[in-house]
Design brief:
323 residues; seven-stranded parallel beta sheet; single chain; Rossmann fold; globular
Length: 323
């Protein structure tokens, strides 16, 4: 009976949903702790690994020569040693598009919350302060703004689609330009990177983490932005140089930031970002809704089942294809 090792510790309710969704003929074992020794034990005898925000390195792959396939929860594979998997002939799949709509909603939530200073307004109200007049001169609408998308994959396209009702101008930069059909469909205009930073009233990050995107938001690129602009990040925390962002927010080089992801997760509460009243934060919760969980579980288990049966997966799910 093929065994699936689920390496990312999670809540009992999610484990139960995984068990109830398990295809016939499979068994599953869950890691209770997020450390290498636990992972090594759970991987014993496992042909498949299902993994979220947990490191899977060459050492763990070497200790599990029976692995047939790695299935990623979501789309970000920066915590998987992709080159090691490729050299060992272990295919790697993602759940492409399974939670795109929910993460897009989170991005728009953070846009609105940052522009309207939601966290600051709530804290002030609960402290007995009525700051109605102050907000009239320090908050901004989303409508009629220019929204810049860094990256133009499934999530960014969902953001563009959901923004249609806000009457915004959408510009984007991506390593590979979208088709003319997609640009028309999403009313999106391709620009170069400098233009993206310079023209965006809202800069929303939707790129994978790699050598090219690591700390793409830094002192140099922040200096190109409008003083009334905000940054929203629902992708990976490492896309931003946090020290440079703190400086920009503290010195009002930009208006604000809405962050769902951080350089280190969970972040240290001594992080100076959390002392700022022009920052809105959520705990990497873009896909943390019931509908997304169900969608990703079903998508990932379907991929594993198809692979076990020798059937084809959707091509967009492959990061490392089978040999």
């Amino acid at each position: 009976m093929p065994k699936i090792a689920f390496l990312t510790p999670t809540m009992p309710a999610l484990r139960q949903e995984m068990i109830s969704s398990l295809p016939p003929g499979f068994q599953i074992e869950f890691a209770q702790k997020n450390d290498k020794n636990t992972h090594r034990e759970v991987l014993q005898g496992a042909e498949y690994v299902f993994i979220g925000a947990t490191w899977l390195d060459d050492e763990l792959m070497e200790s599990s020569p029976q692995l047939k396939m790695i299935q990623k929860w979501g789309i970000g594979v920066d915590k998987i040693d992709i080159e090691a998997a490729r050299l060992r002939g272990i295919p790697v799949a993602i759940t492409n598009g399974a939670n795109a709509g929910q993460v897009a909603e989170q991005a728009i939530l953070l846009m609105l919350a940052t522009l309207r200073r939601l966290t600051y307004a709530q804290k002030s109200l609960m402290a007995g302060k009525w700051i109605n007049s102050e907000l009239k001169t320090t908050c901004f609408q989303l409508s009629e703004k220019t929204v810049g998308l860094f990256g133009f994959g499934n999530i960014a396209k969902k953001v563009a689609q959901q923004l249609l009702g806000f009457n915004v101008k959408i510009i984007y930069y991506s390593r590979q330009r979208a088709s003319a059909e997609d640009e028309r469909k999403y009313y999106a205009q391709y620009v170069d990177l400098d233009t993206l930073f310079a023209q965006s009233d809202v800069l929303s990050l939707h790129a994978p983490l790699n050598a090219q995107t690591h700390q793409i938001v830094n002192q140099k690129t922040l200096s190109k932005m409008k003083s009334t602009a905000i940054i929203v990040n629902t992708a990976r925390g490492e896309l931003i140089h946090e020290g440079d962002l703190v400086h920009a927010l503290t010195h009002h080089q930009i208006l604000g930031a809405g962050l769902d992801v951080f350089d280190h997760e969970p972040p240290d509460m001594s992080n100076p970002l959390f002392t700022l009243d022009n920052m809105v934060a959520t705990p990497h919760a873009g896909a943390s809704v019931k509908e997304a969980v169900t969608s990703v579980i079903q998508h990932g288990l379907r991929n594993i089942t198809l692979f076990e049966q020798g059937l084809a997966l959707n091509e967009s799910d492959w990061i490392v294809r089978p040999r």
